[in-house]
Design goal:
4-stranded antiparallel β-sheet, Cu_amine_oxidase_C_sf, 16 strands, mainly beta, single chain
Length: 289
Amino acid sequence: MWTGAGQDTKKVLCVSEEETGLAYRLEGETPERPYAKMGSDLVLRTISKVGWYEYITEYRFADDGQISVRLGATGDLAPRDYTTPDQGWPIGPGQTDYSVNHYHSAFWRVDFNIGGYGTEKVEQYDTAPTGERGRRGAIYATSKTDVATEATLNTDLRRWWRVVSPTSRNADGHFRSYELELGANDAYEAHPETQPDVTFTQYKPCEKFATFNQDPECAGTTILEYTNGERLTDPVMWVRVGFHHVPRDEDQSPMPVHWQGFDLVPRDFTAQNPLAPADRLGVNGDGVS
């Protein structure tokens, strides 16, 4: 990092390998000798101090191909941000000091180049009950919708998206893709640009930030202005994840890290589990010839 003081540098990136616990377990036909493996992540972190908060930007690259993207907030509660009981939570002795409730809204810009190309397609999947019942329960059907033009979208029950390459296939002949998995997420509906959960836009170099984009090459300054119905031939995904922070006594002090983020799960990158043991590689499909 350039500090402006001659050639002095400052370490700003932490790189580590971390164990993640059990990756899989399978008894199979030999319960006394189950298949089991522990997983690990390559983790990249950097910390930025903004006011009283310290924000941890973290990227976890798992050994099974999953990419987990997170923002952690720690540091301290602002010492002067106290309010009325309906807008805060009592911190400290008694019922006198109400630390204000507040939002952490984060955006990530994801530019895919699966297989070295920038021609991915976007697909939305929804699963809904058909109204019919089978022998063991209700029957649900899954439908696919092509997201062919720029769009702002929101989650729903059993809805998910993937960005898929039309040129790169795995050994089974299936197109490689990344599936977006969103966890806990609080939308900040007071601002229009923080209402969509995910936005897909056509790639433009000048569209660098989800809000307050100041690049003079771009007319638009927010994701809402980027989405003008242009056809997607090189999609960029903007993911918004919000956290509504209601303070608690345990936040003082230092504040325990609270996390928000999402996962990019490989879908059909490999024909089988890339961590599978050698004697399970023959298990691929239903096994019926």
